[in-house]
Amino acid sequence: MGKFEAKRETASGGMARGGMASGATATSGKSSEPDDRRGFLVRMMAVVIGGLVTIFPFAAGLLVFADPWRRQASGARLVKVATLDDVPDDGVPRRFSVSENQVDAWNYYPNQPVGAIYLRRIKGHATPEALQATCPHAGCMVDFANSAHVFKCPCHNSSFQPDGQIIQPSPAPRPMDTLVCKVIDRAGVKEVWVEFQNFYTGSADKIPKV
Amino acid sequence: MKPIAGLLDWLDHRTGYRGAVHEALYERIPGGSRWRYVWGSTLVFTFFVQVVTGLFLWMAYSPSAHTAWESVFHIQYQMQGGWLLRGLHHFTAQAMVVLLVLHLMQVIIDGAYRAPREVNFWIGLILMQIVLGLSLTGYLLPWDQKGYWATRVATNLLGLVGQRVPELVVGGPDYGHQTLTRFFAFHAGVLPLLLVVFLGLHIALFRRHGISARKPLRRPDVAFWPDQVFKDAVACLAVLAVVLFLIVRPGLFGGQDLLHMPKAALGAELGAPADPANPYSAARPEWYFLFLFQFLKLFEGHGASGEFLGAIVVPGLVMGFMFLMPFIGRWKLGHRLNIVYLLSLLCGIGWLTYSAYREDHRAQWIDWNAYGAEYAEVQDVLRETNSDPKLIDRHFHGDAAKLADFDRKLATYEQVKKSADYLDAVKLADENARRAKELASRPGLIPVSGALTLLSHDPLTQGRRLFERHCAGCHTHFDPDGPPSPTDQDRLARSTAPNLFGFASRRWLTGLLDPKQIVKPNYFGNTSHKKGDMVDFVTGALQEDETWKKGELDSVVDALSAEAKLQAQQPADKADQATIKTGQTLIKDTDRCAQCHRFQGTAVPLGMAPDLTGYGSREWLTAFLGNPAHERFYGKDNDRMPAFAADAQHPEKNRLTAEEIGYLVSWLRGDSAEHAP
Known about the structure:
The structure holds two protein chains of two kinds. By secondary structure, chain A is of the alpha+beta class. Chain A contains four helices and eleven strands; from the N terminus they run ααααβββββββββββ. Chain A has two domains: 2-67, no CATH class; 74-196, Rieske [2Fe-2S] iron-sulphur domain (Rieske Iron-sulfur Protein). Chain B folds into four domains: 37-259, Cytochrome Bc1 Complex, Chain C (Up-down Bundle), CATH 1.20.810; 284-365, no CATH class; 366-452, no CATH class; 457-669, no CATH class.
């Protein structure tokens, strides 16, 4: 406060150059406690108010940016993937694509391919086993190598047994994810339905994607 | 001149521009201008190019899942100069990475990170991260298969940092509109803004401390202008020349006249539209990230913690060391250590990049003349033993030396096969890309639902996919006259149904009626028909000269093939009307084909042999796929081919929909979309 008083006194001769630095506290003479507290208050309010107005647009933006954390995925949903005839009981995994109605932000898509599963039926079993075709390592789609009778992921070479168990060495943190599979008889036709879900990649635990 | 000088004086008095210009241009360079100082300026230049080209591209680009690829396609192929603008943006980004390395090398080798320049060095390292971030975000924006699937791997790796982190970057639980909007905001907004801020600081600090020239100074001091500016300009010109070369390169060695080649084929490539349902397993990051891709392979077999180590910890430590360089470099030994560190790092990165490239292209670089036999040998053993280790052991009678030898060969085989699969995937991706662009260029343009819809209703694309999924378990489909690919040979050996390449064409039918070929895997060799009546006939009665005179078989082939009305064969069918008529008469002869086959009204009852009327035509093939065991076709002689649409009344019970069968039929017959009914 004292600095500005010095300036005022030289104002008659025009603006003093180098303004603030030259004004010494010499002419004010008063550094009493109420002035100090007021000076501190002014400074603090300047920082707080300045900070608030600066942060406000960022806060609004970050709120929108974090919108994906608010939304929940639908969880496991029952989807028809094949008929039982498509899955002979020879123990060979076969890939089937999964189609669902999808929502992408403001768009609705009926019956879109959303992923794939492998169905495998062992001799004598009535119900196939279902595996998520997405590699639990980094999310690529796993291929089934007929010749070697194993799953192989083309991205980073993870290998899995036909039942989904890991073959070491593989970068995958856990076996291929199993899914619940049901055979439903509809008007004489045996249909294969699967509780389809996506799981987080890169973790040793099988955690459904939120 | 005087009025102008007066005007400039007036302007200078109001703005002080002369002082600013002097300040900028007459920076002192101790020891004279040098070529090794140009890299920083070339980086500023390339950033400038990116901003300018980026802004103009922004005026034409639309970031949504239905419009990203489509707008890039429009820019590249339909807007004038679009190929050039996009090419500049794409290849300058590549050049920038190289220039970054050169600049970093010069700074470290010249010890320009030492006091008082430590903070500036750190700012430089931060700038490097921002540029790499710009590359990563830019790669996704065309929303093509390569960018989409490569970036998915990168965002999945973010999950190592925090389980819910990928969602923020991706804009939701899965890729979609919000992924593009976020990536684009980072690419065109956040990162360029940060770059400008840090670049401003970088230049300000650099001007504050001046050039750190290597002692002893060789030449007298000069001003930045004009000597160093000249060197910088020449270097920028060289960079631009390299970028332009990369843009026109596809036209230079392609055998086509550069002037008459469609301009749009030049410049940056564009893959097929991103398809979430069809993963592109050969997706790779851009070349300057390949070393990271290769590096991660070293951590296989160590699960999630191994991945965390390889993807986060080690790169973090490597960068961390670089931040410490200014302090390590205080001592002469420390400075030497820094240089050694940098050079070893670059060598390591170079070696990893080369390794990644070599692994992928091994099948292309290998000498098949020398190696082919060994490859086939391993393939045969695996097929016979179904890859079962016990059976393999038995195959070699437990001989340890032979088993060890086989293991060695198996290791090589697997690497070559992986590379062959990679190259096949790339080839298929290129075909899909070409097809997508072909479809998008048709008069009907691209529907509102996006270019992917064009592909999902394209018989050629869907037919091939449906074949892979539903038919390739038994059938093969490759040109037997072409160079033998090891993959195709293996598949042929394992097949249990004919090779359908060129089905119903004259070439295919000639093979079917050839006694040597009909018993091979390309036809009935691996089926129950090998012992059937047709093979008997072809190997027996058909060879008798008394019944079949020279040329008569050819006319039968022509006539039968004409029934299919194949598009590619239309000119030939039209030209050979006379031969076809002769052939038709021969087929109807009850002493020949009509003994078993019905054809255009002959009185043979159905059930003995397929009805040859309309053989291979759309209608015939559609009905055949629906139910090959129908009496019109193989009847009870059907080997094991399933009926794909047996129930016309209840189509939901069928294995394939009418639409899918339509695609398969079009693809098998080689009908193009334009003419498909």
